[in-house]
Amino acid sequence: MTNFFKGINYQKKIKRIFDIINSLFLLILFSPISLITALAIIIDSDGPILADVPERIGEKGKKFKMYKFRSMITNAHFLLRKDQRFKKLFNEYKKSSYKLKNDPRITKVGKFIRKHSFDEIPQLINVLKGEMSIVGPRAYYPDELENQLAEYPKTKKLVNKVLSVKPGVTGLWQVSGRSEVNFDKRIAIDADYVNNISLWKDLQIIFKTPFIMVSGKGAI
């Protein structure tokens, strides 16, 4: 019976049911926070409630639209990559493993919701759609993954391992340092999760996640 909840049996037979039940429960639980967050975004800055970002890479390399509350100025993703005013910032972004500690694109409300991961709540819709899981590896932008692979070519096998499963709303790397962890270490952490996937591992990560959300540890 114990083996049934480990590895491929859990991943294919139980994890999807687990995801649907938990995402529905969490959407209801976080509905007041979601409403307040949406209103705060509307009041704080011009633009849509949800982030206007490109697709990310999911299971088996399939691209999908990840839902997140907007925490930045409108068109922030495009501006960073194409606007000459952000050229220096973009170079810093790439050098720091695609994370910025002082990002001028982040709004006042955005800074708060990113710190406490409230911007991630809409991803529960992705879980219901079957594009994501409650627990899983981080989902990357295509250009980010391409450039990180060029910088860390030895991680290719680890990346392939990570892309063999659905990305998660939370995951092992998120509760092990979040943005303080560079790509090579981050991908190794997520690959380790995939190699040892189990119900018990998922429950451990889920139980740790609220503390990370409240403390804002490692957030940018």
TrEMBL record:
<keyword id="KW-1133">Transmembrane helix</keyword>
<keyword id="KW-0472">Membrane</keyword>
<keyword id="KW-0808">Transferase</keyword>
<keyword id="KW-0812">Transmembrane</keyword>
<dbReference type="GO" id="GO:0005886">
    <property type="term" value="C:plasma membrane"/>
</dbReference>
<keyword id="KW-1003">Cell membrane</keyword>
<dbReference type="Pfam" id="PF02397">
    <property type="entry name" value="Bac_transf"/>
</dbReference>
<protein>
    <submittedName>
        <fullName>Multidrug MFS transporter</fullName>
    </submittedName>
</protein>
<feature type="transmembrane region" description="Helical">
    <location>
        <begin position="20"/>
        <end position="43"/>
    </location>
</feature>
<dbReference type="InterPro" id="IPR003362">
    <property type="entry name" value="Bact_transf"/>
</dbReference>
<feature type="domain" description="Bacterial sugar transferase">
    <location>
        <begin position="15"/>
        <end position="214"/>
    </location>
</feature>
<comment type="similarity">
    <text>Belongs to the bacterial sugar transferase family.</text>
</comment>
<dbReference type="GO" id="GO:0016780">
    <property type="term" value="F:phosphotransferase activity, for other substituted phosphate groups"/>
</dbReference>
